[in-house]
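Handout, page 2. Input:
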Amino acid sequence: MKSTAFNAPLHSLDSETQTYGCRYANPDFCAKNRLPKICALVRADKICYAPPHFWPRQFKKLKTGKSETGTPQNRH
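Output:
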């Protein structure tokens, strides 16, 4: 998945089990799209409690400062 949202820098509210905002490439294909209490698109706090299944691995990569390819990202 090469989504801009998926690769965006971490937000302070991101974790391995939740994301701030939607991290799906195409939220319309998410089975939990607009599901109350789950989907960032309908929650006032914009937290998604059903991120992509491969999000934990991406979260770890972003947290360590590595891109999907495993190379260090430029930090400004």
